[in-house]
C-alpha cells in the first residue's frame, strides 16, 4: 500500500481477530458490547485520538471484516485517519502477520495493539510511538511493576517465593522499528505470547516505558465488568480549562468569539487571533484528555496562517465527539480593556453556541489597570468546558 501523506511515519496494527474463549460470550471478543459500543470501537477511539498521524490497520475475524470496517470508519470518520482492515489468522501471531502485510510505504514505526485493551489512553500510544521514532532501534513496551507477592507452585503446593523486584507486567501497544519487526516476524519459528518476545528471539533489544492501569486487557467476564464500571464512574462528566492571551495589533481586524468587531485593534496571531475560540478549543481538548490546540493543530502550521479560528473549533469538536463525548456547556471570561464585551455579548454567545452545539456563556472584565491587560497591551480569554459521555 502506498499513497499516504509523508508525515505518516507510524502504523498501529490493532489485532481484533481473537475468539475470546475466556470471556465466554457468543460473539468474538472485540465485537462484545461495552458501555454502548463494541470493545473494538472503544479501542479505536484511543488509537485515533493519538497525536501521531498513523496508518491504522484493524485485523478482524474473517467473517467480520465488513463489520470491523464499518466500526473503524465510524470512528475514523470523525477523527480522520488512514485505515486498512484485513482478516486475521488462527493465532494472535498470524493476525499480526496479516496486519504487517499491508503496511504502507513510508511507515517507520509499527505499534501492535490488542483491541482487547479497550480503554488504553491515547497518551500511552503516543508515549510508545515517540520512543520508537527517536530511533534507538529497540522495541518499546509498556510495563508496570508486579504488586502482588509471586510464588512458584507445583499444583497447589508452593515451591518457592519468586523475587518480584525485577518482574513487570507488560501491556500493548508494543512498538518496533518497521524493518526489524517485519524481519523478526518472517524469521519466527514458534509461537510467542507477545511481539516483544518474538522480536527479542530475533536478536532485537526491548526497552520499557511506564504502562497505564487503564490499558488492562479484557480477558474474563470480571475484566469486562471492571471496564463497564470505569466507564460508568469516571467518564460521565469531565471538565477542562483553556487560557489564551494575544497582543493587540492595529494592522489586523478583530475577530473575537467568532464575531467581527469593526473599529477595534485586532489580535496578533498565526491564525485570525480569536483568543476566545482558542481558549474554548483548549478547554474542550483538555476535558477530553486530547492534549491542546498547539499539539493538535501546530501553532505555526502553514495551512492555518490567517485561518478563521472556527476551523480549529470544528476540528476540535470532531475529535471530542470521536472520543465519545458531547459538550454540556462552555463558559468564557474575557479580561481586557477593549473591546467592550457587554455590547456584543449576546452575539458572541449566539455564534459560539451555534458552533459548539451547546450553551456558551461569555463574560467580560478588566484587570483594574494591572498587568498587560490593564496597560492595554493585549487580551486574555479563559474558558471552561463541561463534557459528558
Ligand atoms: N487469532 C487471534 C487471537 C487473538 N487476537 C487478538 O489478540 C488480542 C489479545 O488476545 P487475547 O486477549 O488472548 O484474545 P483472545 O484470543 O480473543 O482470547 P482468548 O485467549 O480468551 O480466546 C485480542 O485483541 C485478540 O482479538 C487476534 O487478533 N487473533
Ligand atoms: C500481547 C499481550 O497482550 C501482552 O500482555 C498478551 O501477551 C497477549 O494475550 P495472552 O492473554 O497472553 O494470550
UniProtKB/TrEMBL annotation:
<comment type="pathway">
    <text>Isoprenoid biosynthesis; isopentenyl diphosphate biosynthesis via DXP pathway; isopentenyl diphosphate from 1-deoxy-D-xylulose 5-phosphate: step 4/6.</text>
</comment>
<keyword id="KW-0414">Isoprene biosynthesis</keyword>
<dbReference type="GO" id="GO:0050518">
    <property type="term" value="F:2-C-methyl-D-erythritol 4-phosphate cytidylyltransferase activity"/>
</dbReference>
<comment type="similarity">
    <text>In the N-terminal section; belongs to the IspD/TarI cytidylyltransferase family. IspD subfamily.</text>
</comment>
<keyword id="KW-0511">Multifunctional enzyme</keyword>
<feature type="site" description="Positions MEP for the nucleophilic attack">
    <location>
        <position position="164"/>
    </location>
</feature>
<comment type="similarity">
    <text>Belongs to the IspD/TarI cytidylyltransferase family. IspD subfamily.</text>
</comment>
<comment type="function">
    <text>Bifunctional enzyme that catalyzes the formation of 4-diphosphocytidyl-2-C-methyl-D-erythritol from CTP and 2-C-methyl-D-erythritol 4-phosphate (MEP) (IspD), and catalyzes the conversion of 4-diphosphocytidyl-2-C-methyl-D-erythritol 2-phosphate (CDP-ME2P) to 2-C-methyl-D-erythritol 2,4-cyclodiphosphate (ME-CPP) with a corresponding release of cytidine 5-monophosphate (CMP) (IspF).</text>
</comment>
<feature type="binding site">
    <location>
        <position position="246"/>
    </location>
    <ligand>
        <name>a divalent metal cation</name>
    </ligand>
</feature>
<feature type="binding site">
    <location>
        <position position="244"/>
    </location>
    <ligand>
        <name>a divalent metal cation</name>
    </ligand>
</feature>
<keyword id="KW-0548">Nucleotidyltransferase</keyword>
<feature type="binding site">
    <location>
        <position position="278"/>
    </location>
    <ligand>
        <name>a divalent metal cation</name>
    </ligand>
</feature>
<dbReference type="InterPro" id="IPR020555">
    <property type="entry name" value="MECDP_synthase_CS"/>
</dbReference>
<dbReference type="InterPro" id="IPR003526">
    <property type="entry name" value="MECDP_synthase"/>
</dbReference>
<feature type="domain" description="2-C-methyl-D-erythritol 2,4-cyclodiphosphate synthase">
    <location>
        <begin position="237"/>
        <end position="387"/>
    </location>
</feature>
<keyword id="KW-0808">Transferase</keyword>
<feature type="binding site">
    <location>
        <begin position="270"/>
        <end position="271"/>
    </location>
    <ligand>
        <name>4-CDP-2-C-methyl-D-erythritol 2-phosphate</name>
    </ligand>
</feature>
<feature type="region of interest" description="2-C-methyl-D-erythritol 2,4-cyclodiphosphate synthase">
    <location>
        <begin position="238"/>
        <end position="389"/>
    </location>
</feature>
<keyword id="KW-0479">Metal-binding</keyword>
<dbReference type="Pfam" id="PF02542">
    <property type="entry name" value="YgbB"/>
</dbReference>
<feature type="binding site">
    <location>
        <begin position="365"/>
        <end position="368"/>
    </location>
    <ligand>
        <name>4-CDP-2-C-methyl-D-erythritol 2-phosphate</name>
    </ligand>
</feature>
<feature type="binding site">
    <location>
        <position position="372"/>
    </location>
    <ligand>
        <name>4-CDP-2-C-methyl-D-erythritol 2-phosphate</name>
    </ligand>
</feature>
<dbReference type="InterPro" id="IPR036571">
    <property type="entry name" value="MECDP_synthase_sf"/>
</dbReference>
<dbReference type="InterPro" id="IPR034683">
    <property type="entry name" value="IspD/TarI"/>
</dbReference>
<dbReference type="Pfam" id="PF01128">
    <property type="entry name" value="IspD"/>
</dbReference>
<dbReference type="InterPro" id="IPR029044">
    <property type="entry name" value="Nucleotide-diphossugar_trans"/>
</dbReference>
<comment type="pathway">
    <text>Isoprenoid biosynthesis; isopentenyl diphosphate biosynthesis via DXP pathway; isopentenyl diphosphate from 1-deoxy-D-xylulose 5-phosphate: step 2/6.</text>
</comment>
<feature type="binding site">
    <location>
        <begin position="244"/>
        <end position="246"/>
    </location>
    <ligand>
        <name>4-CDP-2-C-methyl-D-erythritol 2-phosphate</name>
    </ligand>
</feature>
<feature type="binding site">
    <location>
        <position position="375"/>
    </location>
    <ligand>
        <name>4-CDP-2-C-methyl-D-erythritol 2-phosphate</name>
    </ligand>
</feature>
<feature type="region of interest" description="2-C-methyl-D-erythritol 4-phosphate cytidylyltransferase">
    <location>
        <begin position="1"/>
        <end position="237"/>
    </location>
</feature>
<feature type="site" description="Transition state stabilizer">
    <location>
        <position position="29"/>
    </location>
</feature>
<feature type="site" description="Transition state stabilizer">
    <location>
        <position position="22"/>
    </location>
</feature>
<keyword id="KW-0456">Lyase</keyword>
<feature type="site" description="Transition state stabilizer">
    <location>
        <position position="366"/>
    </location>
</feature>
<feature type="site" description="Transition state stabilizer">
    <location>
        <position position="270"/>
    </location>
</feature>
<dbReference type="InterPro" id="IPR001228">
    <property type="entry name" value="IspD"/>
</dbReference>
<dbReference type="InterPro" id="IPR018294">
    <property type="entry name" value="ISPD_synthase_CS"/>
</dbReference>
<feature type="binding site">
    <location>
        <begin position="292"/>
        <end position="294"/>
    </location>
    <ligand>
        <name>4-CDP-2-C-methyl-D-erythritol 2-phosphate</name>
    </ligand>
</feature>
<dbReference type="InterPro" id="IPR026596">
    <property type="entry name" value="IspD/F"/>
</dbReference>
<feature type="site" description="Positions MEP for the nucleophilic attack">
    <location>
        <position position="217"/>
    </location>
</feature>
<protein>
    <recommendedName>
        <fullName>Bifunctional enzyme IspD/IspF</fullName>
        <ecNumber>2.7.7.60</ecNumber>
        <ecNumber>4.6.1.12</ecNumber>
    </recommendedName>
</protein>
